[in-house]
Amino acid sequence: MAEALAIAVGKYTYVHEVGKGPPEAIDAHHIVVRRSREKGVNLCLFTLLLFVYPTFLLFRQGKLDTLHIWSLVIMALLMRLFLKKPVKKESVLILPAFGVQLETQYGSGKTVRQFVPISRILKPVLTECVTPVTCYWSLSLIIRGEEELMLVFKELRPPVKMLAPIWKALCAAIECGECTETIT
Amino acid sequence: MGEPEKHRILMVSDFFYPNFGGVENHIYYLSQCLIKEGHKVVVMTHAYQNRSGVRYMTNGLKVYYVPWKPFLMQNTLPTFFGTLPITRTILIREKISLVHGHQAFSTLCHEALMHARTMGYKVVFTDHSLYGFSDVGSIHMNKVLQFTLADVTQAICVSHTSKENTVLRSGLPPEKVYVIPNAVDTAMFTPAPERLSRDEIVIVVISRLVYRKGADLLVEVIPEVCRLHPNVRFIVGGDGPKRVRLEEMREKHSLQDRVDMLGAVPHAKVRSVLITGHIFLNSSLTEAFCIAILEAASCGLLTVSTRVGGVPEVLPDDMVVLAAPDPTTMVHAITRAIYMLPQIDPQDMHNRMKKLYSWPDVARRTEIVYNRALKCSNPPLLDRLSRYLTCGTWAGKIFCIVMIVNFLLWRLLQLWKPDKDIEVVPDIQVPKFQHEETPFGSRKEESF
């Protein structure tokens, strides 16, 4: 059995599944995206309006002018945006003495997994990222022999309040890994 | 009496390390001293090659290298509103109380000050240069400056000449403009351990070899000085488009053995070049302050300089020989300086410079300006718009439109991403090191 702790901030919910049992138990950290239902409904209604008006004109006049063609183009783009499979959840599974598994779960149900052996991880780092328009925190892993940092959350940008406990857990797991290496 | 108020300052400029120059040094040293006084200082600049994101420098000075690529003379492309989201994010996440912009050339500085005023922050602007009034570039620059300074809380200039120039160009009330000179890190610029022999007199020139720095003047002065004084040798450090003319002059007058051309001199090696000479020659045609002559005087060199801009305000009369920017007068000034050399004591000169110009003093004076700026009232948007209208028949209206659009965009950003959704950054406590190499800490940890 696992005990779950949850924190909700903005559109993200952080779930920490603490494994009951030996210290080797899997430590799972999930960042779940909370989809706004009203946003989806509004988008659907807006798309419907954009679609209904040109269709009505097409049946009535038998032709479409530029404005109506543009409204159809906008509608198509909005539909694509709405139907695009968004990320539902990103997880970090810490397997003490083995490694870290990073998982990305999409809205369609598809899951992408990546396993990083503990021996390859030098250090987990919390960094501030700067883009031309904003700043945000990100959790990365320094990988042995790699120039680039490996992002733990590739799609989502959870707040630092959620990243800090995951970073602490990763630090503890990697220190533990180093201990076992020195013992053996 | 209560403890002095601690500020959270955002320094903004397109010019910062790893780029080197007067403005860059000014921001760095001022920030270090303000941190020592207990204030929080954050620097915002554009990215330099692969130097992007957040970097920490000595004493925990935090630098945001925003990934906006420079497009001309280390300046970012003017977008008016493009920098609003990032500026707003930094101001909120760092809990900034005051924004300090540097250099009228800096696009990022002008935009950040505009956004900060829109958001109701107090702003201070420091002008580091002098400008003309007649050429196209200056007319345009003066209009931009007028726009920025129309709503600035306080302004700082590096010399009284610079203040006069800024007031004339921007129409800013003189009582809003303060004069705080630059300083020099005297610990970095110490005289040679042993006094140099005067059998051969070495004149040092270190500057960018461009028209503004009087490179054409050097072309005429050097051969004449070499003709009049057979024991004089020149060391010319620096690079630029006018280097070719100096090389040609050296060939024409067969002065290869008496004029050493060093090329570009890294800032870290400036002192080692200066201490090989007796006299420092500055031939600038325009200068708001001239830090180079401070560095030379700190190294114990007697200075010969053109009487331009703020230069006459920089050094006491017994440390400098001033001349009009024409070859004949410059040659006479150099001759006078050669005869003055026996009375010059480099160590005494260095000690005097230590008292006259210090960064902690500059920081204390800047703090007073910050305190006054924060006491100023915050007028509503309509009152501020009336200030912009006075900037010109057409320009005033354009400035008003720009500010209204900026205000609306800011409100839109607040709706899209409210202030409470922007995470506040925790302050990092930097351990105090006991063995510091300079008053500003060891600079070994900075990879420029």
Automatic annotation (TrEMBL), chain A:
It comes from the Eukaryota. The keyword Transmembrane helix applies. Keywords: Membrane, Transmembrane, Transmembrane helix. The keyword Transmembrane applies. Pathway: Glycolipid biosynthesis; glycosylphosphatidylinositol-anchor biosynthesis. InterPro entries: PIG-H, PIGH-H_dom. Pfam families: PIG-H. The chain crosses the membrane at residues 40-60, 66-83. Residues 91-154 form the Phosphatidylinositol N-acetylglucosaminyltransferase subunit H conserved domain. Belongs to the PIGH family. This is Phosphatidylinositol N-acetylglucosaminyltransferase subunit H conserved domain-containing protein.
From TrEMBL, chain B:
GO terms for cellular component: membrane. Signal peptide: none annotated. The chain crosses the membrane at residues 394-413. Pathway: Glycolipid biosynthesis; glycosylphosphatidylinositol-anchor biosynthesis. CDD domains: GT4_PIG-A-like. Gene3D superfamilies: Glycogen Phosphorylase B (3.40.50.2000). The keyword Nucleotidyltransferase does not apply. One of its GO terms (molecular function) is phosphatidylinositol N-acetylglucosaminyltransferase activity. Residues 46-135 form the PIGA GPI anchor biosynthesis domain. Residues 195-338 form the Glycosyl transferase family domain. It holds the Pfam family PIGA. Keywords: Glycosyltransferase, GPI-anchor biosynthesis, Membrane, Transferase, Transmembrane, Transmembrane helix. InterPro entries: Glyco_trans_1, PIG-A/GPI3, PIGA_GPI_anchor_biosynthesis. This is phosphatidylinositol N-acetylglucosaminyltransferase. Its EC number is 2.4.1.198. One of its GO terms (biological process) is GPI anchor biosynthetic process.
